[in-house]
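Give me the fold.
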Amino acid sequence: MFRAANRAAVRLWKDESGVVLALTVIVFLTLFMMACSIFAAGETIRQRVELQNAADAAVYSSAIVQADCNSRLAAINRAMSWTYVQMVRKEMDYIVDKWLERTLLLWRIDDGLMYAFNLPSSCNSGVPYYVTGYDVSIGDGSNHKKVRLNKKTPLVSISEIEQARDNARSNGKDYPTLGPQIDTHKSTIRAMNQKEIELLNKLPGRIKKTVESVLKANVTDTWNDGFAGGAQFSYVLKQEDKPSSKTFEILKQKQEDDFLRHSNYIPEEGNTSEEVFGPGSEQKNWFVATGQTEGIQRGYKQRDNVLVAEWHYTSSLWELTEDGCMQLATLPRQLNTVKGEDVRDSRFTSEIAKANILLKKFFSKEGSLVVGLTRRLNNPFQFMIGGGGLGVFRPFTLDNGNRYMWTASAARAGYNPKPWSKQDCGGEYEETWSDKSGGNDLWNLKTSDWDATLLPLHRVWAQGENRNWDSETAGKILKEVKGEAWIPLYGGGGALGAQGAPKLMSEGAELNYQAAEGWVLH
């Protein structure tokens, strides 16, 4: 029995049938495992690129929305500035014409009364026995029909005032014509103020909606995500929830000159709003700032020597007797005064213009837009490498084998520094604060040449000035984004859990894009 078993064993040892099959199985299994690994690595890389592209597209699109808001604000500011100038000029003409009308009306009443008092006279009737004018007396008609305006001499005749009003009427500058126009300007400015508030209040919601729409259009579950319960796409959007209070401010009265630069009424440094509005608008004159703490407004202020009309009136009654004309009665000389304040109405005060401009914070953390995007690793052969030993997949994972990949991208609206030139800015949009106090400052919401700029992470939260940047690193952004509450993008989304920055995105030294910087910024 032992001899037979030994012979069978020797025969089987020397039998080579089936060896090729065994070798084939081993070789093909090895090749299959290699192909699976290559496919899994390639698919992981593809999904990582898809994730980055989606985040870039989403944050760039959101920056376009932000740039669109800035452009709209700039367009409104320009229109508001122009409307404000027209309103103020018309209000000043309105006030003067209404004051002159009141002056003529009361002067004619006084003159009529003096004439009526003297009318029964049988002798010494007419001027100079009744006179209505400044510094007049019975028997002296030299100043009849003359009044003193604004405490000045020479005196102004009633006919000159009438001619001035006729000229104003011919030029459409009489107060009945100007009144409805002023009301329209005031209503327009109110609507512009409201529109700017609406744009800023709706901006965060518009940005969030844009981010979600773009992300959904660029990432989706693949067929094998379903085996693991979905890719669990989630995102983080970091933006200022209240831009109107954190990154914008309303121009104040002391910035009225700058406000007029929005409509190019003051195109150069050194000009003032008083030069735009003309006499009467100087600070110690009669149409001046109302002292608003927020916004720009002018209104009428009565002064002792401005928009003041004065005249005297007196009359006498005479009777013809055998001895000649005898004075029966005298109406003592009286003084009448008409001031601009006497005819005040709502059009004596301008509508408050509340134009928004950017704060320095806009070009730092508060004005930046950051989008983080994550998905669960989609490796159909993940069951082969359980226990956290991820091998070639480790660079695409997080702490201790947490099987998620994620990325972050940032952008912000930037200003074209060459808005009046036919030459393109070449991608070098202004992304930093530029202090040009007293200059035209076209970038600060005076013109609508805004576009989106995709920024490297190390620049987004840096407080830059005049294209110089502080040395803040991208790691601060990654750390804060990581700790945010991740929002499910669509069905199957979930939170990341405890994690750190991806292994290849550590909090090391500041990133250096060298020659590629210009491409990254645009």
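Confidence is low (pLDDT under 50) at residues 395-401, 492-522.
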